[in-house]
Amino acid sequence: MTIREAVKEDFDSIWPIFREIVTAGDTYAYATDTTKEQAFEIWIEAPRKTNVFEEEGRIVGTYFLKTNQAGPGSHVCNCGYMVSSSARGRGLATAMCEHSQKIAMALGYKAMQFNFVASSNQGAVRLWGKLGFATVGRLPNAFNHPALGYVDALVMYKWL
Question: Taking phi first (over 0 means left), then psi (-120 to 50 degrees means alpha), and beta for anything else, what does residue 141 get?
C-alpha cells in the first residue's frame, strides 16, 4: 500500500468512492445528490491537503485535511476519510487516521477535531476512540439517517 498526496487527476478515481459513500447518506452530512463538480471542490480544492492510499496502482482510500476554524482556532484541523467498499475491514481507516495525524503535526496543527460524526456510525466512533479521540460534544438528533431517522451527531477531539 502506498500513500501519497493527491493530484487533481486523481479525482476521477476518488469520485466513485465519494459517490458511493455520500449517496448512501448514512455517514456524511453531504447532500446525497452532490455533483462531481461539488465533490471536487469539497475533497480536492477546499482542503489544505488531500492524500490517497493506493493498492496495486488503484486508489482504495482517501482523506482530506483542512483548518477547522480561522484565527485563534487555526491550530485545530479537521479531516474526512473515505475507503472503497472493496477495501474495508483491512485497517485502512486506522492507517489513514494515523497518517493524517502525522501530517497535521508536520503542518503545525496542535489538535484534530471531527465536527459531525453520526453516532450510528459505530465503527468510526469506536475507531476514533481507540485512536485517542474523546467525544466532547453531542448534538441531539442532528443527523438524519436514511434508515434510523434522527440520531445524534458527535464532536470528537484529540490534542496532538
Answer: left
